[in-house]
Amino acid sequence: MHDELVGWLEWLGLEELELTALHGDASSRRYYRFEDNGKKFIVMDASNAKDSVPIFIGVGWRLVDAKVRIPAIKSYELNKGFILLEDVGITHVLDKYKQGDSSTYYEKAIKTLVKMQETPSKGLEPYDGSFLLDEMNLMPEWYMREYLGKTPECLEARILLESFSLISKEVLSQPQGMFVHRDYHSRNLMVDSEDNIVVIDFQDAREGALTYDLVSLLRDVYVELDEAEVRRLVLLFRDLKGLDVDDATFTRWFDFTALQRHIKILGIFARLSLRDGKDGYLDDIPLTLKYVLETASKYPELDGLVSILKS
Question: pTM of the full predicted structure?
Fold first, then answer.
């Protein structure tokens, strides 16, 4: 247990603490749950990533101003990297999905996303073309070379480069300048005691494409939604946004943004295993790869990418 963390909590007047470690995310942050006089709290220990604390707090304030429900920030210590948060319970949208009760909550998540996109994004790092390409390049480096042991041949490397450029161009062809959570999926959406959606893990937000968070939600790499339900929710989002865009164009935006995200994730999951020793993410590679192949197969201009990933 982190003595400094306990000392800080005691300094805040919280005593006789029994901290229970929570399952962490893909970062170096650690989370603990505890109770004090009948009140429940979460404390985040980001002492290994102190720079992320002011960013977390700043993005959190933006979301609160936009009336997006997040765990209330009770206190923080910037120099040590600690944040004390409201405990919103243990129920995720993923749990509702597993209980066969997902439709209502996914609709709520879509409505929350529409509201979240009203959050000011000025000053956030941009999801620009070079960043989109850098993310996709994690796939040949970590998934192909390091994980599969395949180094792309000269022709394959060129096909990958051309495919990534096309995907990036399509992502950038849709409306930009949105607040982008970047990991808006069933594990990062909680359901509180009043049945409201609570958004967590938002500190990596950027400014970017209209459909990015929609893709994170509906093409979730941890759970596969029914295809008819995905289509219904995609069009619900478009209609709630009041966009005058035809189905084919909006679907293309959605598909190419999904390709960018899932190509990146193949690289990230391989890297989490090989570099960081987090092998659990390897279990999620098959669904991620399935998404890439199924979506890319819809577009003849990506036949080369499909054949490389199938080989």
Answer: 0.93
